[in-house]
Amino acid sequence: MRRIGYASVAGAALAALLGCAAPREEGEESGPVPGAGNAAAVGGDVAAVERADLAGVFERAGAAGTFVLYDTQDRTSVLVDPGRARERAVPGETFELVTALVALQTGAVSDAGAVVGAGGAAHRDAVERVGRDRLATWVDRFEYGDRDIGAPEDGSGDFWARGPLGVSAVEQTEFLAGLARRELPVDAAHQEALHAATLVEEGAGHTLHGRAACDGGGAPGWWVGWVAAGERTHSFALRLEPGERAAGDCEALGRELLAALDVLPRESGTR
């Protein structure tokens, strides 16, 4: 795996400040931010490079969306459509990764596979087992998106699919970077369990982990994960605007972008 050559990227580097919001004390209130399409400002200290040339990947697919690739070692990001990359949207079933970590850490479940990819009913059951208050504390601790999962009395049942929870593609990659590097504030064994549950492929010199939530309907589509190759790890997040697209299409589009950025072999990124 070779490192992305930022200096040679077509289109000049765009210096930007992105990333995590400042930590808050446990229990501090966060103002509600609507889920899909919320253009919330995201601050931080991650240097970013815009790749406007890769917008053609979306155009050829007849899709509108954004893609973020985060180099966990250099703490630099590549963005396709920076405006959309900073917008928050509901995470959909990609939130299973958060739920599974918390459920494992709190003993609500003993198997990551009981949550990740197990379906909506299993996800809701895990959330109920953890408890909304306890889950809210962990979402805040992870600094995940706007940290707002609402309350049952608000009618925000599937808050990850209907709001109020919102997360940007940039924020997804930062959370995933912590998971990929086993740096989140949960037991390493639980993070390893998520590594196993999200494994998509093992190639010559690389492993690909991912979770798709792109089954169409009125919610945004996501394909998120990370690629590990030797000492280098890149987390990524693809988000598509709401529309009728299948999960396989999302993954194919994401693979094409990862291949164009030399993070996956070319044959892995061919649609």
Give structural notes:
By secondary structure, the protein is α+β, with helices and mostly antiparallel strands. The protein has one domain: Beta-lactamase (3-Layer(aba) Sandwich), CATH 3.40.710. 31% of the residues lie in helices and 19% in strands. The protein contains 9 helices and 9 strands. Strands 1-3-2-9-8-7-6 form a 7-stranded mixed beta sheet. It has a two-stranded antiparallel ribbon with strand order 4-5. A hairpin with a 2-residue loop joins strand 8 and strand 9. Helix 3 crosses helix 4. The chain is globular and about 45 Å long. It starts with 46 loop residues before the first strand and ends in an 11-residue tail after the last helix. The N terminus is likely disordered.
Count of helical stretches? 9
What count of structural domains?
1
CATH superfamily: DD-peptidase/beta-lactamase superfamily
User: How many strand units?
Assistant: 9
Q: What is the first-to-last residue Cα distance?
A: 21 Å
Radius of gyration: 17 Å
- What portion of residues is helical? 25-40%
Major β-sheet, in short?
7 strands, mixed
CATH class membership: Alpha Beta
Mean pLDDT: 83
CATH topology: Beta-lactamase
Strand order across the biggest sheet?
Answer: 1-3-2-9-8-7-6
Overall spatial form: globular
Uncertain segments: 1-43
Oligomerization state: single chain
At CATH's second level, what is the architecture? 3-Layer(aba) Sandwich
Structural class: alpha+beta
What series of H and E elements makes up the topology?
Answer: EHEEHEHHHHEHHEEEEH
How large a portion of the residues is in β-strands, by DSSP E? 15-25%
Keywords: Signal
Protein name: Class D beta-lactamase
